[in-house]
């Protein structure tokens, strides 16, 4: 638990003033086809209001995407201090020829002197998704990426998300750092820890480490489309627990990148459901995540400052999957996702409390009662302390979920999503999370 105002033990540092800690959100430009500049303006304002310092703009090969990049940079001018950088999606872009290198370099060059372009260690930040096999017509991956960077015409700080063994980072002197894309999710049926991060930090040997933080992962595409159908475990309040890991190890981390703002296809979005979905409506529509965005502000401030902020408003966050993990979907042409067994049939609650109280958890079958304990299957009570508190309760098939914060006989908050039911007979498989919140 993290109490309000708790101060971390910060290391002493006698060298030059380091770059500030920043929190970035990964933004999928490929999902912004209908965006106007005003839409980017709204996204930036919402991100800033919740402690996010910038967007990593993941862009691919579609001919319309460079125009969306330009719109985003134009919108950012109205938000001083909000930073942007390109994340070249090398699973989409070609990296096979010298012409490809020039095209990518020119895209970076277009925004290199923009007032909202992120620079770090005196270089324009460039990231990627993948790219560890991109030669750009050169004799090695290192030489290929060096050919890109040398054509930008200004210093570049290169922090890609490559899927390589971190012990081999020394083979790539072109790297200024690295982004550990898969470090944010548990890769098995266990909770996340800092071991993957530490391997990357050790492999980087003093270069910049960009750490991932993410709330969720589920994707459900058939072999005839994107051929992606699996989950990663998000139980036991992955998002706040991951943030707390990064905060306690912040001295080894340069940047924290949230995966993601709007990747609906992989169900880890924290922004509003908007733009153009990549045929993910079946598992995204009706599953808001913006409560996680609200939670971000608290942890982002702690990561950046080294001090957990005081909690001045009572808040509760709640989330759960929509059906039992072993339920059989009656009408889904896509099979149950891989790793389905690596999750629990429970709902999760995080309470930000200004003072002690009592939490009542239950799984009510109907939204017919206003009493905190009425209609609750297996109600459970727990003590709440000042600060951050986390809880879980097994779900009842056919019922909902409810959390009520009490102080004595005073009901402070009652979080009972009326549109959520733990459905034992789903028509399609959906391991996305329904997320909601309440605040005083």
UniProtKB/TrEMBL annotation:
It comes from the Eukaryota. It holds the Pfam family Glyco_hydro_71. One of its GO terms (molecular function) is glucan endo-1,3-alpha-glucosidase activity. Keywords: Hydrolase. This is Glycoside hydrolase. It comes from Dacryopinax primogenitus (strain DJM 731).
């Amino acid at each position: 638990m993290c109490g309000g105002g708790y101060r971390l033990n910060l290391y002493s540092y006698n060298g030059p003033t380091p770059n500030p800690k920043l929190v970035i959100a990964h933004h999928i430009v490929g999902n912004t086809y209908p965006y106007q500049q005003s839409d980017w303006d709204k996204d930036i304002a919402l991100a800033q209001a919740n402690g996010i310092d910038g967007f990593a703009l993941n862009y691919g090969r579609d001919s319309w995407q460079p125009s969306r990049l330009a719109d985003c940079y134009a919108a950012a001018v109205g938000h001083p201090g909000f930073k942007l950088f390109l994340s070249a999606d090398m699973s989409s872009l070609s990296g096979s020829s010298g012409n490809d290198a020039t095209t990518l370099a020119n895209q970076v060059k277009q925004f290199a002197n923009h007032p909202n372009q992120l620079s770090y260690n005196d270089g324009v930040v460039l990231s990627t998704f993948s790219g560890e096999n991109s030669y750009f017509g050169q004799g090695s991956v290192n030489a290929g990426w060096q050919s890109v960077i040398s054509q930008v015409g200004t210093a570049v700080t290169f922090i890609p998300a490559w899927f390589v063994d971190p012990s081999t980072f020394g083979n790539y002197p072109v790297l200024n750092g690295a982004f550990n894309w898969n470090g944010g999710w548990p890769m098995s049926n266990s909770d996340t820890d800092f071991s993957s991060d530490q391997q990357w930090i050790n492999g980087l040997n003093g270069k910049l480490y960009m750490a991932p933080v993410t709330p969720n992962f589920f994707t459900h595409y058939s072999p005839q489309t994107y051929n992606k159908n699996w989950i990663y475990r998000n139980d036991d309040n992955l998002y706040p627990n991951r943030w707390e890991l990064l905060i306690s190890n912040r001295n080894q981390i340069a940047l924290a990148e949230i995966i993601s703002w709007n990747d609906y296809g992989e169900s880890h979005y924290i922004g509003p459901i908007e733009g153009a979905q990549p045929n993910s409506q079946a598992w995204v529509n009706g599953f808001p995540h913006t409560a996680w965005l609200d939670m971000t502000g608290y942890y982002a401030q702690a990561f950046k400052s080294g001090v957990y902020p005081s909690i001045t408003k009572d808040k509760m966050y709640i989330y759960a999957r929509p059906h039992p993990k072993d339920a059989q979907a009656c009408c889904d042409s896509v099979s149950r996702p891989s790793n389905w067994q690596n999750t629990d049939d429970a709902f999760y609650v995080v309470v930000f409390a200004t003072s002690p109280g009592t939490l009542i958890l239950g799984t009510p079958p109907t939204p017919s009662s206003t009493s905190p304990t009425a209609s609750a299957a297996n109600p459970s009570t727990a003590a709440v302390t000042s600060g951050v508190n986390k809880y879980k309760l097994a779900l009842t098939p056919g019922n909902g979920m409810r959390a009520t914060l009490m102080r004595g006989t005073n009901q402070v908050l009652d979080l009972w999503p009326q549109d959520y039911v733990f459905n034992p007979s789903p028509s399609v498989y959906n391991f996305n999370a329904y997320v909601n919140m309440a605040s005083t």
